[in-house]
Design a protein that fits this description.
The chain has 448 residues and is mostly helical. The chain has 15 helices and no strands.
Length: 448
């Protein structure tokens, strides 16, 4: 890279680092970046080269923690409270948090009652197909309320939800057909993309906001699992106590507790992510470092299983589905690792482990793609085969580019920002593919 490109890469890394501090709002990051550029220009005019000007300008900006505290004092409403229920401060400070809690609880109850109504009035197949549609509007509604979405963005979200609901419920699908199953499996991806638009406050084109949504998704999964584990223990203890008195909790569990509490817990998890992001952010690097080598070993085992499976036309269909599940897990782990990494950190051992993980995943994907193409050539195309082939092609492109950028990062020829931007830029591709499967596969394959 030439000198201007190196300088821009350094500014991008500093900007990413500042953006990770939750006390600094996105608009303020833009303001701080402009201030940094002005200092750099002044120092270059004074005779310093680009690297010297950047280092001196950053030093004069002060330590990031001090800058964050300064902005936090100026914008106290943007601070992440230690406890949302009982924050320190005046009643004026408390009321916004209480209003948000009221909105969250209302959305949680609404989602729970919507799922309960769906379970009551829909048959099992229709209920499972529409399950995401019963919950996602409440998640998007809470995030949209918090972001104060513009009417145009709200219109886009409502239109997307209506179109998706119409496709899932009005298309003449064959009962138990492949295209119906594919639509039901891909609809949650489309729904989560719409939730992402609400989370980004309509600024989905911003790479920063898309990466924030990646973090939100990962942290939401962690909080939801923790809530589910805690809730499971509590329900188990309660059921045990009831059984000692001769009461059976199972009917209430099936009819009310699970249908209402599980979607409600999902909304509560989203609220916790918004309120306590720093808690999970501290353990995210630990989780990624633990699961990266373990997932790599799992992929190696999968690669051996595929290599020893014999003729690729006879490879078990369930094994290929399992491979896709593992590859999606790898993709999620890579993206969450990128979101949790310090952008200013020098390339190290963990980046090498990430490259190894992505490389093995590419090898597995290549074998899986070969098996899929062989099966299509031998037995012909079907909705399931085409959908799986398309997904694996998307994964191959994503993983290949990620491997190339990781290699460039380790060789000090690429900035970390390039890798981060690639992850976020590719997200809409998955949403577009999922939308294509939901909308087009039914008519293309005769709704079978």
């Amino acid at each position: 890279m030439n000198a201007p490109e190196v300088l821009e890469a350094q500014i991008d890394r500093w900007r990413d680092y500042v953006r990770r501090h939750r006390a600094v709002a996105p608009d303020d990051v833009d303001e701080m970046t402009d201030h940094l550029r002005e200092r750099i220009d002044d120092l270059r005019a004074a005779g310093l080269d680009d690297e010297e000007a950047f280092l001196v300008a950053v030093k004069r900006m002060g330590r990031l923690d001090a800058v964050s505290r300064e902005f936090a004092r100026a914008h106290s409403e943007r601070l992440w409270k230690q406890l949302v229920l009982l924050p320190d401060g005046t009643e004026e400070d408390v009321s916004p948090a209480r209003r948000e809690l009221a909105v969250v609880l209302a959305c949680a109850v609404g989602a729970g009652l919507a799922v309960k109504a769906g379970a009551t009035f829909l048959d099992e197949g229709a209920f499972l197909t529409n399950l995401g549609l019963l919950v996602a509007p409440f998640v998007a509604g809470y995030l949209g309320w918090k972001r104060r979405l513009a009417a145009s963005t709200t219109g886009v979200l409502v239109t997307g939800l209506v179109v998706l609901a119409a496709v899932l419920n009005l298309y003449p699908y064959t009962v138990d057909g492949s295209t119906l199953a594919l639509a039901a499996l891909h609809a949650p991806v489309v729904l989560w993309a719409l939730v992402g638009v609400a989370y980004a406050g309509g600024r989905w084109r911003s790479p920063d906001r898309r990466m924030d949504f990646v973090r939100f998704t990962g942290e939401l999964a962690i909080y939801f699992v923790l809530l589910a584990l805690g809730g499971g223990v509590l329900v188990g203890l309660t059921a045990g106590l009831f059984s000692l008195t001769g009461l059976d909790l199972e009917p209430a569990l099936e009819q009310w507790i699970l249908p209402v509490c599980v979607p409600g817990a999902f909304l509560v998890a989203a609220w916790l992510v918004e309120a306590k992001q720093e808690v999970v952010e501290n353990i995210a690097p630990v989780l990624t470092r633990v699961f990266t080598p373990l997932t790599t070993l799992t992929l190696v085992a999968c690669l051996v299983a595929l290599a020893t499976a014999g003729d690729l036309t006879t490879v078990d269909r369930e094994l290929l589905i399992l491979m896709d599940g593992v590859l999606l897990l790898v993709l999620a782990l890579v993206m969450y690792s990128v979101s949790a990494r310090d952008p200013l950190a020098r390339p190290g051992l963990f980046d090498g482990l990430q490259l190894g993980l992505v490389t093995v995943a590419l090898a597995v994907d290549a074998v899986a793609l070969t098996a899929m193409l062989t099966r299509i050539a031998e037995f012909g195309a079907s909705p399931n085969k085409v959908a799986a082939l398309g997904l694996n092609l998307l994964l191959a492109v994503h993983l290949a580019r990620s491997a190339w950028l990781l290699l460039g990062l380790l060789r000090h020829r690429r900035a970390f920002g390039d890798l981060e931007r690639w992850q976020t830029a590719y997200l809409p591709v998955y949403a577009a593919w999922a939308a294509l499967v939901v909308v087009a596969f039914g008519p293309l394959f005769g709704f079978v």
